[in-house]
Specification:
The protein is α/β, with parallel strands linked by helices. The chain contains twelve helices and 14 strands. α6 links the parallel β4 and β5.
Length: about 375
């Protein structure tokens, strides 16, 4: 029997993307100068409701620039959630600062504000809030704590373009926001990232460091060590086309989630993504947590679904389990990580395919 392969993720590339990419290539502006860069940055800032947006080579370099802009010193500490993609922690390490992991909220899977306070020391400089799998972190509480302790807040919105709290978009809810535009994210530029901020000083600093910290007045004059973290005009052409479709992409993401809810609602062992009141989840990836599962059973489930043509992914492993960041185990992130998998969530998936995934998942559990 021939079974259809259903991938976890796949970008949606339409004639619009192809037209813009072709136009950028034909224009000769193939590196990091060009109209698509300007337009993409300008329109992304408008989309997020921020004063500034700055494109970068990827989400990790966006995060690195954001952390550099707040002036971290070696020995400073930055608070991060224990459950996130490794880039959140690594970007902190690039600056010489130390990341301190904090447990997550069991519903949103984002950092638990109640546990942040206990992790603050006199070395703490910043908090990175990650909007995990498309759900916004509790920015009101996080900003309150940051104000009390005089800390910077950075949003890692790599997985949450367009998510909102009280109708305000993530990326504009703290000092700096960063987004990834990798091929499997809500929108893509191939590789790429984008930073949002309302703070002119931070924006200027990040823009300078993105381009080798070259003096604006004197070409090839540099007074500090900078980086080449620029995006190309061709990538921005792809990004702009995607941005023009983002409302439609998010609508579809939310519809896919509804289909999964319908297909899995009768199985009490399965917990799906959460959406907090006043928040809009963009469901970057459909998440299921299976009650009482262990890593071993979870990994067997992934293998069994693969035999049915269904690609799934495990949740991230807790940062505190990684050899470079080893620290005490956090109860909720350990549990979510061992229970969780992501299901196919790409733009072009149809209702029938979702139904098939749901039926096979229930059978396999
Ligand atoms: C994807 C991702 C990043 C890094 O983005 P890249 O573009 O892959 O460098 C950072 N943080 C989180 C939470 C991510 O999911």
């Amino acid at each position: 029997m021939n079974i259809e392969f259903i991938p976890i993720s796949k970008p949606s590339i339409t004639d619009r993307e192809i037209a813009y990419i072709t136009d950028a290539a034909k224009s000769g502006w193939v590196s990091s100068l060009g109209e698509y860069i300007n337009k993409f940055e300008c329109n992304y800032a408008i989309y997020c409701g921020t004063k500034y947006a700055l494109t970068t080579s990827n989400g990790t370099t966006a995060l690195h620039l954001a952390l550099l802009s707040i002036g971290l010193n070696p020995n400073d500490e930055v608070i991060i959630p224990d459950l996130t993609f490794i880039a959140t922690a690594n970007a902190v390490s690039y600056t010489g600062a130390k990341c301190v992991q904090v447990d997550i909220d069991k519903n949103t899977l984002c950092i638990d504000p109640e546990k942040i306070k206990k992790a603050i020391t006199n070395k703490t400089k910043a908090i990175i809030a990650v909007h995990l799998y498309g759900h916004p972190a509790d920015m009101d509480e996080i900003n309150k704590i940051a104000k009390e302790f005089n800390l910077y807040v950075i949003e890692d919105a790599a997985e949450a373009h367009g998510a909102t709290i009280n109708n305000k978009k993530v990326g504009g809810l703290s000092d700096v926001g960063i987004f990834s535009l990798y091929g499997n994210k809500i929108i893509t530029s191939g590789e790429g990232g984008i930073i949002t901020t309302n703070n002119k000083k931070l924006y200027d600093k990040m823009k300078l460091l993105r381009d080798h910290a070259m003096s604006k007045k004197k070409r090839y004059w540099h007074t500090e060590i900078g980086y080449n973290y620029r995006m190309t005009n061709i990538q921005a052409a792809l990004g702009l086309a995607q941005l023009e479709r983002i409302d439609n992409i998010i609508l579809k993401k939310r519809m896919i989630f509804e289909w999964y809810c319908n297909g899995l609602k009768n199985d009490s062992r399965i917990k799906l993504n959460y959406e907090k009141k006043d928040c809009k989840n963009v469901y970057w990836m459909v998440c299921v947590e299976i009650n009482k599962y262990t890593y071993k059973r979870r990994n067997a489930l992934i293998k069994n679904l693969a035999l049915k043509g269904i690609e799934t992914r495990p949740f991230f492993y807790p940062i505190s389990d990684m050899p470079m960041y080893k620290s005490s185990k956090k109860v909720i992130s350990q549990r979510a990580s061992s229970h969780g998998i992501n299901l196919p969530s790409f733009f072009d998936i149809n209702e029938q395919q979702v139904k098939y995934v749901c039926d096979e998942l229930i059978k396999a559990i």
